[in-house]
Amino acid sequence: MENIIYWEDALFTVAFVVYALSSLAFLLHTTLKKEKIGKAGFVLAAAGFALHTAAMVLRVIESGHLPFSSQFEFASSFAWGIVLCYLFLHFLYRFTAVGTFVMPIAFLVMGYASALPKSIKPLMPALQSNWLYVHVGTAIVSYGAFAVSAGLAAMYLINLYQNKEQSEGNQKHMLDTETSDYLSYRVISFGYLMLTLVIVTGAIWAKAAWSRYWAWDPKETWSLITW
Q1: Burial (CB count within 10 angstroms: exposed 0-12, middle 13-18, buried 19+), residue 205
Q2: Is the model's pLDDT at 166 over the cut of 60?
């Protein structure tokens, strides 16, 4: 058990460092306009994701459940979801510049997770349900998509402010406003669909656990307001 804990912590730390290097590479790619640096940033993001996934798998083996039950586990899974959504978007569209605005978000979330207690505690009876995995899993994907859309929105605003969409040299390294707006809309639409599933599965889970679909507690209320 101690060996698993050691390797989980080591892989998490290395993934955190690799995400930092990926963020730096993407920033250099955008400022220096060097395509090779951007490709290196993507490779680092993919490598960090693989290491992060391995760390999460070890935690599952160690705890006996998916890493969704504590603040550390959710923050780590949230960062994982951000990178997952970014990599998926990259494979679809091959826009390297998106990583400049997304990977720093994942890095900051990982930094927050690293400051939280990593101890593993038994699941509360109410959490011992398959609905936990469906509900929190869709939340991670939804929030990851929204984080990616936030990065795309930042890119859109920077391009709009600097009016660089007319520069051919810059278009190679930064998405123009029309493309970033289109991608942001698509990603938000996907995130909204996932958020809808989060609310629906949460209500079903609440009915199974507490015999009511909705109680208007702060978490439920603000989820509905956000939706």
Answers
A1: buried
A2: no
